[in-house]
Amino acid sequence: MFSRDRWDEILEALNANKFRTLLTAFGVFWGITILVLLLAMTNGLSNGVTAGFGDFATNSMFMWTQSTSKPYKGLPKGRRFNYDINDVAAIKSEIPNLKYVSPRNSLGGYQGANNVTRGTKTGAFQIYGDYPEYIYQQPMDLLQGRFLSYSDIEAKRKICVIGTGVVKSLYEKNEDALGTYIKVNGVNFMVVGTFKMSNSQGDKEEDANTIYIPFTTFGQAFNQGEDVGWMAITAVDGTSITDMKQQIFDLMKSRHKIDPTDRAIGHYDLSEQFGRINGLFSILSFVGYFVGALVLMSGIIGISNIMLIVVKERTKEIGVRRALGASPWSIKSQVLQESLILTILSGMTGISFAAIVIYVMNTILDRVGPVENFANPSVSMNVVFTALIILVVSGVLAGLIPANSATKMKPVDALRIE
């Protein structure tokens, strides 16, 4: 029940020694500020690092071939082998719970020798031979036209989809690229689409300087036949590609007569790497809570000590109130309320200050542009609610010992104290 007299007493007690009250409150203010900022910085690091995975389906892996390290069934050590399109079909048919199996071939490189020309302009770009489903594994924003289709695959059409870096290098400003032709290693390809990637797993500049052409066209135009350079494999949602990859390796080793213990298949498990990073940031979040809680605890101890001093200073007042009939709970509740109000006010001020600091950091990041491995430091409302709960519990704990001390005094003994 609201009592104005009680609130007046509490405010008078807190204002009795303003400097002491401010110093006491600063401990809680600083503790909750450190807690929120640590969690925000951890979240910023997490956002920055996971952004490096881009929009690529994280439940995926890449797989390629390497030289054999062991002789097997009469075949020598150091043997090279290649995947082919039949391997892709075998994986799809024999390994369950796979969403996409995309064979890929590549040539060139945007930092290598010039391999693409248009009129008098030339450039060095990364060329990929892909299937249409690759766009679901590596989502991209189509600015114009379309991506590859299965009709392109079946007809082996000489068409291509080019990145913004290719457009910038080979075309004039505001020139429409759709329907025009470029030469890749002397072979003409018609541009049917342009794209950009807002996020990417690797180098954004390299992604912008990339050209996609149909896998079958790539094999025919550049004498690759049905060979597959590597594959991008994605498992269905709810199934980990990490748990399935050994089945895929065993199948490929069996088809290419490779010792089951040979490490002749190279791979990069995106799902495994993503899981490790998530685990790391879970640990960092725990450390943030732990360190912030320790700093906050020092502030709570300070409030508890000050409340003990306040109770001692008001011993005679407590004795008078007890003599006039005040119940022990009435005395205890006032001490607890004073502690709780001081804790919550200082804590909410700390949360507000941390929010301002986070806002300033995001404003600076927006102005200076993206920072490597750090983006959008922030905390969720769950963190704010957790902080409030911590403040309430801390305020009660801070006042509990002083409140018990106040109620243990006998009125007669309290009145005798000068």
From TrEMBL:
InterPro entries per the UniProt record, alphabetical: ABC3_permease_C, MacB_PCD, Macrolide_Exporter_MacB
Q: How does it sit in the membrane?
A: Multi-pass membrane protein
Sorted UniProt keywords: Cell membrane, Membrane, Transmembrane, Transmembrane helix
Instruction: Give the top-rank taxon of the lineage listed in the UniProt record for this protein.
Output: Bacteria
Q: Which residues cross the membrane?
A: 21-41, 286-311, 340-361, 381-401
Annotated compartments? Cell membrane
The MacB-like periplasmic core domain sits at: 21-248
Q: Which GO terms describe its cellular component?
A: plasma membrane
Report a single Gene Ontology molecular function. transmembrane transporter activity
Is the keyword Transmembrane assigned to this protein?
yes
Predominant cellular place of this UniProt entry's protein: membrane
Pfam families from the entry? FtsX, MacB_PCD
ABC3 transporter permease C-terminal domain spans which residues?
Answer: 290-411
Q: Which family does it belong to?
A: Belongs to the ABC-4 integral membrane protein family.
**Protein name, entry field:** ABC transporter permease
From which source organism is this entry?
A: Subsaximicrobium wynnwilliamsii
